[in-house]
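User: Could you check the structure of this?
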Amino acid sequence: MMKSCTAFLIIDVQVGSFEERKVLYNRTELLRVIQLLISKARSASAPIFYMKFNGKSGSSLRQGTPGWEIHKSIAPATGDVVLEKNHPDSFHKTSLQQELEMRNINRVVIAGIQSEICIDATCRRAYSLGYDVTLVKNGHSTYNSTVLSASQIIKHHNEIIGQWFASVKNSESIEF
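Assistant: Sure, the predicted structure tokens are below.
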């Protein structure tokens, strides 16, 4: 049986993103969707990559703090790859591309936080690097802004990213 050439990339689903002072939209559903996709990826022996954002001093995602840790409900297992990043783009100044190349990955399924920042930047970069990109339509989230609700931001990014940079699919229809 041929190994999967697809990887699951989970971006910045860290404890600090779930703090009460700023409510992450649809947070329980986001975790449920990611759990489902982790299960699908494991069943297909697809590699799973976790990206952790190193927040600045005072940030709920500051490196080394409890908020920096990956959310316990989707905790990595032995063999999963955990990479740290300092920029929205998961490829910028990280070893992500090399890790994908070592495993002959040509397709990435992307889920996580924050729709308009790290999800957007990583989808665009993965596309530019030649990957077949699938954005999980119901697998990324954000916060309300002063201009748009979180729901509007998510819908907008699904539309924009889906026009050029990625296939946008609901979690139920994603295969690894």
